[in-house]
Amino acid sequence: MQTQRLLKIAAVTSAAALMLAACGGGSEDPASSAAAEGSAAASEAPASEAAAAPGGEAFAGPVGEGEGQVNILAWPGYVEDGSTDPAVDWTTPFEEATGCQVNLKTFGTSDEAVKLMQGGGWDVVSASGDATLRLIYGDNVQPVNTDLVPSYADIFDDLKMQKFNSVNGVPYGIPHGRGANLVMWNTDKVKEPIDSWAYTFEADSPYAGAVTAYDSPIFIADAAVYLMATQPDLGITDPYALDQTQFDAAMALLEQQKALVSEYWSDYTKAIQAFNSGTTAIGTSWQVIANLALAEGGKVEATKAKEGATGWSDTWMVAKDTPNINCAYKWLDWIVSPDTNAQVAEWFGEAPANAKSCELTADADHCSTYHAGDTAYWTDVYYWNTPTAQCLDGRTDTQCVPYSEWATAWSALRS
Amino acid sequence: MTTTTATPRGFGYRHPRFRLAALLSAPMAWLVVVYLGSLAALFLTAFWTVDDFTGQLVKTFTMKNFQQVFTNSAYLGTMLRTISIALLVTLLSLILALPLAFFMARVARVSWRPLLVAMVLTPLWASYLVKVYAWRSMLQPESGVLAWFLAPFGIQSPGYGFVGIVITLTYLWLPYMILPIYAGLTRLPDSMLDASSDLGAKGGRTFRSVIMPMVFPSIVAGSIFTFSLSLGDYITAQIVGGKIFMLGNIVQTTYVTNLPFAAAVATIPVMIVLAYLFAVRRSGALDNL
Fold it and tell me: Does residue A150 register a pLDDT over 60?
């Protein structure tokens, strides 16, 4: 009797499993399998068509009643609901004000964000400049109607309509905030004040064996920025638009740097630990890393190098076929509204995009510390961008090295 | 629910083949669809290419990815490095596990065995990341525990790099080597050891001629774990590897922008493990498992 019952259970379970397998493989239930099928659909889209037609029409408006939920893909720290720190919460007030329930997923790298967006199921994303063009040309996002985002008017002008958040004069997102990648050093190991990337790139650096660098293909642009200052005859005007000669020069510089490097970092907690312990004496870093290292009692300083720097300027974008368009627009306006943008910028450690945020930060000096409105500071900061075969600096007489080759070159360098 | 009591005459009972199918269909579906299916998809993807602009797949057949992997000396170097790390980890695990397992199975009192096994298993309950980060602070050059420990002998801490990866991976996978060997040794009958010593064999001879042949299949089983787990690892290399890359790191940095290339790289460890299993099978070590 016992055996028989067990057999029945086994039979029912396996039948159910077979049915599930059959459903997954064959018939499409649009509601439940939309997310899963999205990736297949995206990869099946003919590449040429995707490249020719970025995105369709922007939402005409007006922004109406919310759909009840919005699915958000964001960098960690951009969407806080009090679960990290009870005092840090700008999501609950949004939900109360709009009735749009926020479903959040965070990502660690731009590549991960692109992969998730290609999979579908997300309504808005906070994309860095090295993800935005891939999303636009991959047909994953739609143009944004800035008239429907009242706070857009208060955003710093030098963040609007940049190469990474607009195409042919059409805006694809709302600027969120920005930061520069800094040269940082441990003051126990490095006694002199530093103002140049030379200590991290030149073969005769006194800090050989204790240099760090960011572990991502996009770091090739940092080498290009240094070459812009030191080898002007290469003619680099945009570190994300490198022809083969310029690209090879940047890779040669990185090969030279590799001999000096003790570690590469992509996890910022590892960078904090390495700088504080002195394992790393000098290298590339973010402002938020410097702040956290100092808060832990580390002896570090960070500054923008005289050669200029790469940086990041993030953009809130709306997914192409979002069913929650009203909630998406409500979120765009909420996250860049003066008060919220001030909270995000302070929590994350970046310059806010909204000019009015500067009066609302808890630390009155926040905007000057992060050079929020200091246009001159940002002129030699080159925001992360996605390199494409068609040169981003407007050159038409040559082909540039596209990002997929940056990635393979980086993996070959690191191998 | 009242069931028929005395006579087990259900459908499944009368049709043993159906009963077998019902029992096995779920695990078989899992094995074929999820496991082998994804491996096949991986292998297939390796022959495609991507659109440079968007990084999306273009399904045209090409050998370019494999060519790139096998003609670039940097990738070949990483392949060799990864294999040597996996071999070294296996060897170190074996050297550490043999005496430990022997003590647990043959020397220690029988009543201690569950406790000793539990102690070997305990590290497996802690998170992988916590353990690797713990090794990161222990390996720290100058100020780490290892540096402090080795300083009196005039040796420097190995720091982050090749040696750091080998040490950390050995720590991580050691239990997977100890347990099969321990199981093999407990199955070894006392009478064999007695016979060996009765016939005049000393310890070394008994070890070589009696114990080793008996536990060899267990060692092979353990080595499959340590070898293949090390071969696929990439997080340890990231945390304690300094600037060293393993095959997994190449996959990790390229899979979003160039999935076919990452797939080509990912098939390498699969091939190596298959070759290893084949060699093991040829040696006959799997026969008595």
Answer: yes
Please judge whether A14 and B25 are an interchain contact, meaning their C-beta atoms are less than 8 angstroms apart. Answer: yes
The domain limits of chain B are 77-283
A4 to chain B, minimum CA–CA distance in Å?
Answer: 7
Distance (Å) from the alpha carbon of A231 to chain B's nearest alpha carbon:
27
* Interface size, chain A vs chain B, as Cβ–Cβ contacts under 8 Å: 149
Name the residue among B81, B38, B44 with its Cα closest to residue B61. B44
Q: Is the dihedral of CA A227, A230, A232, A237 positive or negative?
A: positive
Chain A neighbors of B160, CB-CB under 8 A = 262-263, 279
Q: Return the residue in A5, A13, A139, A411 with the most chain B beta carbons within 10 A, the one to mutate for interface testing.
A: A411
Cβ separation B74–A412 shorter than 8 A? yes
Please judge whether A115 and B23 are an interchain contact, meaning their C-beta atoms are less than 8 angstroms apart: no
Query: Can you state the percent helix, strand and coil of chain B, rounding each to 5?
Result: 75, 0, 25
Residues of B in contact with A42 (CB under 8 A): 56
Nearest Cα residue to A230 out of A209, A202, A192 = A202
CA distance B130 to chain A (A): 13
Confirm if A410 and A220 have CB atoms less than 8 A apart: yes
Give burial (CB, 10 Å; 0-12/13-18/19+) of B204. exposed
Q: Which residues of B touch A8 (CB under 8 A)?
A: 10, 12
Rounded distance between C-alpha atoms, residue B184 and residue B205, angstroms: 19
**How far apart (Å, rounded) are the C-alpha atoms in residues A194 and A415?**
30
DSSP line for A158-173: GGTT-TTTEETTEE--
In tens, the pLDDT along A56-114 reads 788 887 888 889 999 999 988 899 888 877 888 999 999 999 999 999 998 877 888 88
Alpha-carbon gap, residue B192 to B47, rounded angstroms: 54
Q: Please identify which residue in the block is written with the tokens 């800090």.
A: A207
Report d(CA B36, CA A395) in Å as an integer. Answer: 47
Q: Which residues pair with A371 in a beta bridge?
A: none
Is the pLDDT confidence value at A360 over 70? Answer: yes
Chain A residues whose beta carbon lies within 8 Å of the beta carbon of residue B135: none
- Ordered domains of chain A (ranges, CATH): 2-44 (no CATH), 48-177+317-373 (3.40.190.10), 182-285+388-414 (3.40.190.10)
- ipTM for the whole predicted complex goes beyond 0.90: no
Distances (CA, A) of A203 to A155, A255, B5: 42, 10, 86
Cβ proximity of A138 and A50 under 8 Å: yes
The CATH code that applies to domain B77-283 is 1.10.3720.10
